[in-house]
Amino acid sequence: MTMASFLKEHAGPLLLAGLVVLGIGLGIGVGDPEWILETGRRLTGDPWLLAGLVVLMAILFTFALPGSLVVWLIAPFVAPWVAVPLLVTGSVAGALGGYWLAGRLGADRGPLRHHPWLVEALRRHGDFLNLMAMRTFPGFPHSVINYAGGMLGLPRATFLLATTLGLCVKWGVYSSVLYGAAEAIEDGDALQPWTLVPLGVLALLLAVGGWLRQHYRRSGEA
Where does the VTT domain lie (predicted)? Predict the structure, then answer.
């Protein structure tokens, strides 16, 4: 794989890791960003706003839009034990919405046409463990999984359980990384276990996700 193709396929996860590291560095070396964190925490302290963000996430995923952006509006400002259930609720609701919508459309359209290899991978490996792996590891667009699941008629119970468990792990890691990064910026000290350990886990997810992506792509082309 060339460097250009690697960067293209893993742009999202690499951007996440890069922004976290950049944010920690800027927060420590450039100035005092406490006003940003205070504003974010004040806004997310409103339960109605949090509920609205969860609904927004569900709507975005339902219509194959980037619902993962909501992670950046919640995770840095809300403790993981609160953020993860909120993010999982929005994601799973959006996943079911996309599943239902694709089932009604009954055709290969929307986000599916841009990722035929992933549709074929789900056609061949749509069981619980493979579906959970795709939900857990970075590199697998959630909207494509949602729409492909509905179009292919994957068992709804399996789809729902694998999605819920996989996203609990994924959003747990992401929330820990982003919340830890925000605390590191606020404290001016990045070399703390609660910052470094989640980053290490994220790096592992990125590595395994990259390998799985290539595995499924080769399987779909075989």
Answer: 66-178
